[in-house]
Each structure stands twice: as C-alpha cells, then as structure tokens.
Design brief:
Structural class of chain B: mainly alpha
Order of helices and strands of chain B: HHHHEHEHHHHHHHH
Strand order of the largest sheet of chain A: 1-2
Largest interface: A-B, 51 and 52 residues
Shape of chain B: globular
Radius of gyration of chain B: 20 Å
Oligomer: heterodimer
Number of helices of chain A: 13
Number of strands of chain B: 2
C-alpha cells in the first residue's frame, strides 16, 4: 500500500491572499529570532535596533527608501520578463554593467558638459548596455535554445570579472593605491529632499514601476505580453511574434538592471568599487516573487526588503551580527513564500492506493 | 618559459578544477534524467563546502568533512524533492529557493561561528600512484592527484554504465522520458524521482566539500564562483550523458588552469590587472562551448513537468 498526497485547488475569498506574505514574513522573522538567539544575541534588542534604524524615524524611513531603490528597478524588470515567461536571473550582471557604464560615461563627460547632460548620457548608456547584456542571453535562448538561466548566471560572473579588471586597469583612480576604486563622480544625482540621502534614482524607479504597470495591464500590447507568458500555446496560435516579445522583455529587464547600477553609483556611492556587487540582483528575484510579478505590489515588497537591508545595518552595529543575517533571512522568506502559497491556495489530502 | 613541468602542472590543476564541476554535473544529469531540473546546486555546493569545512575543522578528519558534504546534499535534495515531486511546485522557483537558502545560510553561519578571523584546515593532499605517476607530463597531470579525483576516474564511468546498461538506469530514463508509461510498467515514479534528486544533490554537496577541502583549504562567501550553475550548463553541453558532461567540465577546468598559469607571466610583465582579465576566460569559453553544441540537444521529455497520477 502506498500513501500519496493529492493537491487540489481551493476556492478562496480574495483577502486570503494577504495571508501569504503575512505568514511568510512572520515565520522568517521568527526563525530569524532563533538564529539570533543561536548567535548569542538577544532577539528583542536585536529587532528593536532593527526597527528603530529602518522605520523608527523619518530619516530611518528615508534610508529604507534609498535601500529599496535598486530592488525596485531590478524587481520590476525581472517581473516584466517573468510575465513573458523568461526568468532573468542575470540582473546582477546587468546591474554591474550599468554601474560600470554610468561611471565611465560620467568620468568622460563630467568635466566637459553640464552635469545634467552628463547624468542623462550615463543613464542612457547604462540602460542600453544593461539591455544588450540581457538580450545576448535572450537571443541565445530564442535562436539557439540555450537555457537562459545558465547563460545569465555565467554572464553575472563575467560582469564581475570585468568590474574587477577595470577597477585595476582603465577605471583605476590614480589616488587609490590599496583599495581598487574609480575616481570620484562629480556629476551625480541631486537629492530629492535636501539634507537627506534620498536621490533622484528613487523617483525614476517609482515612475518606471508605474509605467511598467500601465504597459502590462492597460495596453493591448501588454496584454499580448502577458498571454505569451501565461499560455505560450495560445500566443503561438494567435500568431504573436513570441521571439520578439521574449527579446524585448529581456531588453527591458536588462535596461532596468542597468539603471539600477547607474542609480547606485550616481546616487549613493559617487564612485565605483567592487562593493557595489553584493548580490542585490539575486535578492531582486525574491522581491519580484513576493510582489507576485505585479509592478505595483513590487513597490511594497521592495520597501519590505529596503527595510530589511537598512535594518540589518543597525542590527550589525547594535549586536555585532553581520549583514549576512539579511541573506539568511531572505532565503527563508523565499522558501516560506513558495510553500505557504501552495498550502494556502491548495488543499493537500493523503490518499491510500493499494 | 614553458617546459614539461609547467604543462604537467597545468593539466594537474585543470583536472582539479574540473572535479567539483564533474561531480555536480553528473549528479545533475541523474536528476534531470528523472525529469527534475535541480537549480539549487550552487546553494547545495556552498552549504556542502561550509559544513565540510566546519566538520573538518572540528574533527581534523577530512573524510568526515566529505561525508558531511554528502549529508547536506541529501537533506537539501530531500527538501527539494518534497517541494517539486510531492507539492508539485515549479522546479525553477523551488530550485532557486534552495540556492538562496544555501547561499544565505552558509554565509551567515560561517560569519557567526568564525567571525572575521582567517581559519585554515588540513587540506587534502595529492597522492602519486606508483608507476603511473612516473610517466612524463601525464603522470604529473593525471596520476599525482587528490583521492577524490581518482574517485571520479572510477565513479563517473560507473555512473555512465548504470545509466545506460542496467535495469535501474532504464527505470530512471523511463521516468524522465515518459513517467506515465514507466508507472504502468510498475516503476514507482515518485520513489525514482526522490532517489534521483537526493543522489544528485548528494554529489553536489560532495562537490562543494571537495572545492573547500581539496582546492581552497579555507571557506569564504561565494566560494563556488558560479560553478553550480555552470555545472547545470554542462549538462546541456553533455546532452544528458555523464561522460560527455565530464568532458565538458574539462573545458572549464583547463581554461581556468591555463588562465591562472598565464597570470604569473602578466605579473612578471608588470601588468597585474591583466590577471583579472584572464579570469574572464573560463566564463567566456563556457558560453561559447554551450552555444557550439546547443543545437540538436534534446532534453528528457518530462523535464520540468511535475508528475501526477490522474
């Protein structure tokens, strides 16, 4: 006799969908507390430092908004390509390429043109190069059938090696001997609210998220894109140019990641160094998943992750727990999210088979 | 300049670098043959590397380190099998979950236990095979190796044999090609999928442990530098054949070995930044290799599709 599990869909009222993120974050933070306890940190004081630093004051909230900006850019792009049925896990590499190009263009133009023009040019070039970096993997998938997950990850590492090389070669600052970094960027983003770190990049990301929502859900072409992702057979039958859709979605996704890279160097760091590449592109995949691939919901989920990443900095200074805590937490969030989604949306019964 | 000894050591390092990739890749062949893409390999390797490191540090016994790498792989493989075989979750999404879990936990636990201090462990040592290791070039390259490398010499052809020439291999391939037919034949499809995934993941855990215990001797974050995903790519390169995938891992291993050897020349030339330029090569070559053979590759028919009995 064998015991099998049978998975059946449930009919649920709409508000039940809110249960999923609540359960997910609740469980993840609960396990986070256990991890803290194991690491010898009092979870209560840990989380209070965390909340104080990420949500406790207007400055804290603004810092969380700064932290969420790269997630918002990249997760909206990733969600866009997910909607068309391609998984872009190459955001990290496209982000690095965007950061490199923005730095390079700014270093060339900041002394010879108006800062605004220099910024505009760097954004355009970063978006184009990010798009091309992603489209290469998209083209390999569409025309040669090479799995895009594999190529994009390999290209992430390639981008990181390019970054390491450039920082020691062509983009090296003559003044930095020990620590490889680029010369400072003088033509950087203005701050939206004076006296805070909230920069122009946040506004751009927000506008693009709304634009992506409008395109996907309010236009005819956006509808076709979504059909291509949800039922490829229907799309082929309806005569959509699926290959072109895939390429375009990869390009958009890559452009968003490229802009994220530009926004980080022009808005936050004001120079280029290896520390820009800490895996934000991978985290953005989780952000997109939790935001259910919906650009407006992603604004909320990017904020959650901004809060986590900002809060962990304060957790670190208060308790000595390192930033790797956020990495552990986000892995848990991801797994709990996919599992709780199944448990909420489906009924699982055991059946006995002879 | 280039002498016989250099060529021998390039081959030696090439084989060493190919070994973790080969273990992970052949493990992935097994799970994909049962119809399951395991995208969590990189995470499993990282956690296997960490636990292998930690246990070896605590006990001083490398064998226990390897065994704990295997154990990590089995546990994560079981979790993934539960998610994708029983709960029938999307394999890509669930696999990425295993990646994130392994990546996040290995890093966090390592930092919490060891902090910023630099800890080294007794690395595995290379053992020459009497007689064979005396052959010029090849002897130094192939037969003056780590025990784990010798293991792959025997193990991977054996896995090829099992896959193509035995009843178990037939069942495995049947489950991947046409689970319904296999079920009718009396093969327990769910059990085969579970076992294939657990086995494949245990090889990934072992691969991670070897990367740490045989190659680096230390643990640091992202120690696998994308190897897990490259291993998945090499499954496509190898067209789901263990021996061909193994050959593919050699391409990456040798490119890596040649470019690290060339680094020394660049340092002598006073162009140290070029060493980083050289490190791009293995990734570029892997992409080219993937593109070159991708046409005509045919995946197991049920790859990525959850099986249900209705």
């Amino acid at each position: 006799m064998v015991i099998l599990l049978k998975v059946e869909e449930r009919r649920l009222p709409k508000y039940m969908f809110m249960v999923i993120p609540v359960v997910t974050f609740g469980l993840a933070f609960l396990i986070g507390a256990i991890l803290m306890y194991w690491a010898g940190v009092d979870p209560l004081s840990g989380y209070s430092a965390f909340l104080e630093g990420s949500l406790g004051s207007p400055t804290a909230i603004i810092n969380s908004l700064v932290r969420m900006t790269p997630f918002l850019f990249m997760a909206v792009g990733i969600a866009f390509s997910n909607r068309v049925g391609v998984l872009n896990i190459g955001a990290e590499g496209q982000y690095i390429m965007g950061a490199i190009m923005a730095t390079w263009v700014t270093l060339i133009f900041q002394n010879i043109t108006h800062p605004a023009l220099s910024i505009l040019l760097s954004l355009i070039v970063a978006a184009i190069v990010g798009a091309l970096w992603a489209m290469f993997a998209g083209a390999l998938k569409v025309y040669l059938g090479v799995n895009e997950i594999v190529t994009t990850v390999i290209m992430n590492w390639l981008a990181f090696k390019i970054l390491q090389w450039l920082l020691r070669g062509p983009l090296k600052s003559p003044e930095s001997e020990m620590w490889p970094m680029s010369p400072p960027l003088k033509a950087h983003f203005p701050y939206i609210i004076p006296g805070t770190r909230l920069h122009l990049g946040f506004l751009i990301a927000l506008i693009l998220a709304v634009a992506a929502y409008y395109f996907l859900f309010k236009t005819n072409l956006g509808f076709k894109f979504r059909v291509t992702g949800s039922s490829p057979e229907v799309a082929t039958y309806a005569g959509y140019d699926v290959k072109k859709f895939v390429l375009f979605s990869m390009a958009f996704s890559g452009a968003m990641a490229g802009l994220a890279g530009a926004s980080e160097v022009l808005g936050v760091f004001h120079f280029l160094y290896e520390g820009i590449a800490v895996g934000l592109g991978y985290t953005s995949i989780i952000v997109a998943l939790v935001g259910k691939n919906h650009p407006l919901a992603i604004i909320a989920s990017a904020f959650m992750f901004g809060v986590i990443y900002n809060g962990v900095v304060f957790l670190q200074s208060a308790t000595g727990l390192t930033y790797t805590f956020s990495k552990a937490i986000e892995g848990l969030i991801y797994l709990f999210f996919i599992v709780s989604e199944v448990l909420v949306l489906y009924r699982i019964r055991t059946i006995k088979v002879r | 300049m280039i002498d016989i000894h250099t060529i021998g050591s390039v081959i030696n390092l090439g084989i060493v670098m190919a070994t973790p990739l080969a273990l992970a890749s052949v493990g992935e062949v097994y799970s994909e043959r049962a119809g399951i893409i395991n995208l969590g390999i990189e995470g499993i390797m990282l956690l296997g590397a960490f636990l292998g490191f930690h246990i070896t540090y605590l006990t001083g016994n490398i064998l226990l380190g390897y065994l704990s790498g295997i154990a990590v792989g089995m546990v994560l493989g079981l979790i993934l099998a539960f998610l994708v075989v029983t709960l029938r979750l999307n394999q890509v999404i669930a696999g990425m979950g295993i990646y994130f879990l392994g990546f996040g936990l290995s890093d966090f636990i390592f930092r919490t236990i060891y902090g910023a201090k630099h800890v080294t462990i007794p690395k595995s040592t290379q053992v020459p095979i009497p007689g064979l290791s005396a052959i010029p070039i090849i002897g130094e390259g192939l037969f003056h190796q780590y025990p784990m490398v010798y293991l792959t010499y025997i193990f991977i052809p054996l896995l090829w044999f099992i896959l193509y020439k035995t009843k178990w291999g037939l069942w495995l391939r049947a489950v991947g090609e046409n689970p319904k037919a296999a079920d009718t034949m009396g093969v327990d499809v769910f059990k085969v999928k579970y076992l294939a995934l657990i086995f494949g993941s245990s090889l990934a855990g072992l691969a991670g442990a070897f990367l740490c215990l045989g190659v680096t001797g230390v643990f640091y974050e992202n120690l696998t530098f994308g190897m897990g995903f490259i291993a998945i790519g090499l499954v496509y390169f190898g067209k789901w054949d263990p021996l061909r995938a193994w050959a593919g891992t050699m391409i990456f291993g040798f490119t890596w070995s040649i470019s690290t050897t060339l680094q020394e020349y660049f340092i002598k030339m006073g162009r140290p930044e070029m060493t980083y330029f050289m490190l791009m090569l293995p990734y570029i070559v892997t992409i080219i290799a993937l593109v070159a053979v991708s046409r005509g590759a045919r995946a197991p028919k049920s790859l990525g599709i959850p099986y249900s009995r209705e």
